[in-house]
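Hey,
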Amino acid sequence: MFSPFSSYRMNRISDIALKSFALFGIAFFGALALFFINPTQSISQSSTDDETYRQLSLFGDAFQLIRDDYVEDIEDETLISNAINGMLSSLDPHSSYLPDNDFKKMRERTKGEFGGLGIEITMEDGYVKVVSPIDDTPAAKAGIKAGDLIVRIEDDDVLGMTLSEAVALMRGPVGSDITVTVRRGPNNFFDVTITRDVIKMRSVRHESFDHVGYIRVTTFSEQTTPGLKKAIDALREEHGDALDGIVLDLRNNPGGLLREAISVSDAFLEEGEIVSTRGRKDNQNSRHYATSGDLLDGLPLVVLINSGSASASEIVAGALKDHQRAIIMGTRSFGKGSVPSIIPMPGHGAIRSTTERYYTPSGVSIQSTGIEPDIEVELAVVEDLEDGAVREEDLRGALDNSGEDDNEDTAEDDEKEPINMRDYQLSRAIDLIQGVQIFKSLNQ
């Protein structure tokens, strides 16, 4: 019996056959032309093209089958988008398809302001892994930590989602709440409720501890290099020649713009290679070099890193370590040494594809190895002992030092909680810089 459905099927088969024939004709005559130029290469190329066309034909058949027979009606755009994303996400955790809206939001983010929770994420074993929370954002304030796995978003299991789908679920109106289930460690599961907000990223902030400057870089955006220069100028103005050195804090910095990582490295280097990138093709290889001028004029520099320091942070730490310009302290960094290329697809968003790898000046790949610190300092909490040390002045009847004037003034910082009680790694970095300066003064 003849039916409209079978007629539609026959028409579709005819269309596919005609298109296949046309493609075959193009491929045939192209292969024939190449044969007369280079017979050996042409046979090999023709064989490769035949297999490619066979696989593309399989994709077309699968697409048409799903389009016609799947239990629900799915838009063609959704099928194609999911197919592209599946192809990319199967390559590595950082390759993906960005629909038009996601592409626009990504561009907003590099300018320093975007909406969301405030976490840098990737996929691991089917779950959303937190590379690092961003300072002063809802996620950081809620207690989310680097290395946490988000296994559930509201009522939806993350397992089986793509990264883009998980991101879309976590986004929402500013001021609205979202509850995520977090796995921290093998068996520690708990729910966290986070209030969405507009994430205004202050990429650089600074303060002083005695005569040691502290500069915290939270991300590498368009604001980073100008912010770094302002911070150094402010510290120099505050301390003058009494500035002992700088602690550059890159902990939980998920990275950002490559050019900013190069610019920040260049700020402390007089010369030499900063980073190189290498891909499959020679024209993808590049090397980036420092220009003359160290903003610190050789003052001691300690860089703090941890497992949340990724990508651009690792470029900076690797360059300063290889040139022996800074002492790297903390724990091994994340190990993201792949270079994503964002390729716009006009009217259809963009493709994020891994095209190259980063290499430090010594030629070492960062990928999956990260940067090893020169001095390993684990995160720790320091507590005062209940029974403190006993000194001469504590003994009954001890003589006082009556020849000295009593100093009734107390420094402002004495009222603050000691830095080593709040941040052991930072305390060790400050101690190191102060130790270097004391050693220099003893040898003058």
